[in-house]
Design a protein that fits this description.
By secondary structure, the protein is of the alpha/beta class. Helix content is 35%, strand content 15%. The protein has nine helices and seven strands, in the order αααβααβααββαββαβ. The protein has helices spanning 9-20, 42-46, 73-77, 93-104, 110-122, 142-148, 152-164, 187-194, 222-233, and strands at 85-90, 134-137, 167-168, 173-175, 198-200, 210-218, 238-246. A five-stranded parallel sheet has the order 1-7-6-2-3. The chain has a two-stranded antiparallel ribbon with strand order 4-5. α5 (110-122) crosses α7. Bound molecules: zinc ion (2 copies). One zinc ion binds next to α2.
């Protein structure tokens, strides 16, 4: 006699999948048996924490010390071209593990869970969203995208746009220069490295719009700054940014 859990046709399908194609959480090794679980189990997702401490309201950089949110020294010297940036968590622990799986192991399906986490971390009514016309993923150079199989920022931005009922401007901002990986460079070199690396191909898609750039990891901000500058030069009214994590 079937267990009550497996009475409906959908549950039968799940039972068959569990018996013949069992899959396990890539982080903790537990069997993925709950409905909707893919790649990572619900318990591991539950351990991902949003960042809760003072930030720089301009560049979004987390302040280590306790106290009120305040403008950081770098932003006092020079405001970034984007006017708000929100990062959802620290790039360490389980969030870093998930991003690495997402990005380098081709688990593009994790983009949906990461977008849900981001929305919950920032809050649906945060000023970041006010008046936004569309999300814009930080593009990869086409060669890099071919190697990776997908653009992680594009999937994340698409899922986030769906959750918020916003538009997605895809393919208007492109990366025209395949620069060396940013991770191997110092901050000053990173800024130089990306200068002129992006181009707006379809100005009509960005002109006069309030755009929200989306990327996976924020390090020095040089990528977001260069993309923002490029979009503003092409006529965007305002550029903001969201990243999943901050290193
Ligand atoms: Zn797990
Ligand atoms: Zn700042």
């Amino acid at each position: 006699m079937p267990l009550p859990l497996f009475r409906t046709p959908g549950s039968w399908a799940k039972l068959i999948e569990l018996v013949f194609f069992p899959s396990f959480c890539r982080l903790c090794g537990e069997l993925l048996e709950k409905p909707g679980e893919r790649v990572i189990c619900a318990d591991c997702w539950g351990k991902v924490r949003a960042h809760r401490s003072p930030i720089c309201p301009s560049c979004g950089r987390f302040h280590e010390a306790a106290g009120e949110s305040h403008i950081c020294r770098k932003c006092i010297d020079q405001r970034p071209p984007f006017c708000i940036h929100r990062s959802c968590g620290k790039y360490d622990g389980i969030l870093k593990d998930i991003i690495l799986l997402y990005k380098y192991r081709r688990y593009s399906i994790l983009g949906k869970g990461l977008a849900e986490f981001a929305l919950q971390a920032v809050g649906g009514d945060d000023e970041l969203w006010w008046g936004v016309d569309a999300l814009v993923p930080v593009p990869l150079h086409r060669r890099r995208r071919r190697e990776r199989g997908f653009n992680q920022a594009r999937i994340f931005a698409g899922e986030l746009a769906k959750l918020k009922g916003l538009g997605l401007v895809d393919g208007a901002l492109v990366k025209i220069r395949n620069v060396p990986p940013q991770t191997s460079l110092e901050a000053v070199d990173r800024a130089k490295n990306v200068r002129g690396a992006y181009l707006v191909k379809r100005e009509k898609a960005v002109w006069g719009k309030v755009l929200l750039l989306a990327d996976d990891v924020y390090t020095t901000g040089s990528t977001l700054k260069e993309c923002s500058r490029t979009l503003l030069e092409a006529g965007a009214k305002e550029v903001r940014a969201i990243t999943i994590a901050q290193a």
